Each structure stands twice: as C-alpha cells, then as structure tokens.
Amino acid sequence: MLLAQSDSDFGVVQVFWSMLWFFLFVVWISLVLRVFSDIMRARDLSGVAKALWAIAIIVVPFLGVLIYLVVHGDNMSRRNEQRARDFDEASRSYVQDVVGSGPTAGEQLGALADLHSSGALNDDEYERAKANVLAS
Questions:
Q1: Selection from 55, 51, 32 nearest residue 42 by Cα
Q2: Which residues contact 83 (CB under 8 A, 6 or more apart)?
Q3: What is the three-class DSSP state of 43?
Q4: Fewer CB under 10 Å: which end of the chain, C or N?
C-alpha cells in the first residue's frame, strides 16, 4: 500500500527534514564559533567577563548565545566592520608598496624618449630598451 510506509522507507519528507535539521545544525555551529571568536577578540571585556560568557555559552548554549547577541550584538558588528576596514587598509598599503615601488612603464618610456631625443641613445639602443620596458 502506498500510504503505509515501514520504518525502513526514507521518503521525500524525511529527506527534507533531514536536510533542514542539518542546515540548522551548521548555522548553529557557525553562530557559536562566531560568538566565541567575538568574545575572545573583544577588548572592552575583561578576562573574567570573557570566561563567564564562555561558561554561559557552554552550560546553556541557546540562552547564552541569544543573550550575548542581544547585549553585545551592536558591538559585535562594529568590531567586524573595524576589522574589515583594518584589513582593507593593510591590503591597500601592501599593494601600493609592492606596485608603487618603481617608475611606471609610461615614465620609463618618457625617460627613454628624452634620452633618445638628446642623443644619449642611438636608434638600436632605444628600440631594445623600449622593447624591454614593454615586455616587463
């Protein structure tokens, strides 16, 4: 009979519920890890406060996480924004240090043209130097 299913049958509804619970479990784990990392990175919390929050999350996980999000949710978002700004600034500074360390190809070609027009470079030397600049 189609309506009577045994325990060994795994229908579409069971697959859906299993996927939903797995998804919620993954979301829960990621939320707990995010809250733990925020607790440990918070500079406005003392060591005792960090330990108490960690114990609260371990002992009563749902309530501890929800209370932490209510109490420190705005600070959590500000710290994430500041960390993103610091990372962006550091990466921009690094790129400028690496890329901006020497003259650009346009500046090099301008200097070569000046040397060629002043007679310091003959036509063959100028063409070789120009090819080296364009190749790099």
A1: 51
A2: 41
A3: coil
A4: N
Tell if the pTM clears 0.85, that is, is over it. no
Distance CA 73, CA 79 (A): 10
Determine phi and psi for 18, rounding to 5 degrees: -65, -45
- Report pLDDT for 100: 67
pLDDT, one tens digit per residue, over 79-89 is: 889 999 999 99
Q: Any idea what DSSP says for residue 101? A: T
Cβ burial of 82 (10 Å; 0-12, 13-18, 19+) is: exposed
Using CA atoms, how far apart are residues 106 and 112, in angstroms rounded to an integer? 10
